[in-house]
Amino acid sequence: MLPLAFLTGEKPAPAADHLDPPARTNPNSDSTPDFAADIADLYVTHDDDVVTMTVTFGGPSSPQLPAFYDPNVRYTISVSNQPPRQTTDIPIVFSFGRESGTSDGAFGVRVKNVPGVDGDIIGSVERIIEKDGVRVFAGLVDDPFFFDSQGLTDTRRTGALSFRNDRDFFGAQNITAFVIEIPRDRLENGANELEFWTFSERLGGQFNG
């Protein structure tokens, strides 16, 4: 599970969660890591009208590798808009699947429980899908997280801060992401703060919604 948070007053928020837990997602610890279920980051941004939520997973990975679309993994963005802040008031659920009736057809994405949307949002990956004022994208992207991994190693080794802003371990890496833009007033509940977190679930078999 990866928590984040914001607003309506601005607050700093934790994010990065790559290769965690190591026993299931880090290839240094597991010979068959579960990349598709490995959430990396949750980003939430907003303006006066729209909230944009981005979840990245399955990375960092080589640019030569494809995106991770696993029909047996379900992803949820939980939104809390009233006390208690740890309970989900709006669960927005993403899942992937093959084209209907095929075992090797094109992948699509389904998004459930989106406030103000009639039914589910369904469409192809790697393109923007629009429905009832909401926009969704799922696909392979350049990993947006920035971190100087060598700087961390040097800092631990020497005890002196050794981070550099021109050295980004994630700069040449890809990652799979889904993004949803939704009108802000569909999430807000008066003056209550909004809290966001995300988690993945590996299912026992094909998820049929």
How would you characterize this protein structure?
The protein has 209 residues and is mostly beta strands. The protein has one domain. The protein is 7% helix and 38% strand. It contains 2 helices and 11 strands. A 6-stranded antiparallel sheet has the order 1-11-4-5-6-7, with no helix packed on it. It has a 5-stranded antiparallel sheet with strand order 2-3-10-9-8, with no helix packed on it. A hairpin with a 3-residue loop joins strand 2 (39-46) and strand 3. The longest helix has 10 residues, at 149-158. It is globular, with a radius of gyration of 18 Å. The model is unreliable at 1-13 and 205-209 (pLDDT under 50).
Topology:
Layout: E1 2-3, H1 22-25, E2 39-46, E3 50-61, E4 73-80, E5 90-98, E6 107-112, E7 121-124, E8 129-131, E9 134-142, H2 149-158, E10 174-183, E11 195-202
Antiparallel strand pairs: 1-11, 2-3, 3-10, 4-5, 4-11, 5-6, 6-7, 8-9, 9-10
Please name the defining characteristics of this protein.
209 residues; mainly beta; 11 strands; globular; disordered N terminus; disordered C terminus
Task: Give the gist of this structure.
This protein is mainly beta. It has one domain. It has helices spanning 22-25, 149-158; strands at 2-3, 39-46, 50-61, 73-80, 90-98, 107-112, 121-124, 129-131, 134-142, 174-183, 195-202.
Helicity range: under 10%
Report the β-strand fraction as a percent range.
Answer: 35-45%
Number of domains: 1
Count all strands and give the number: 11
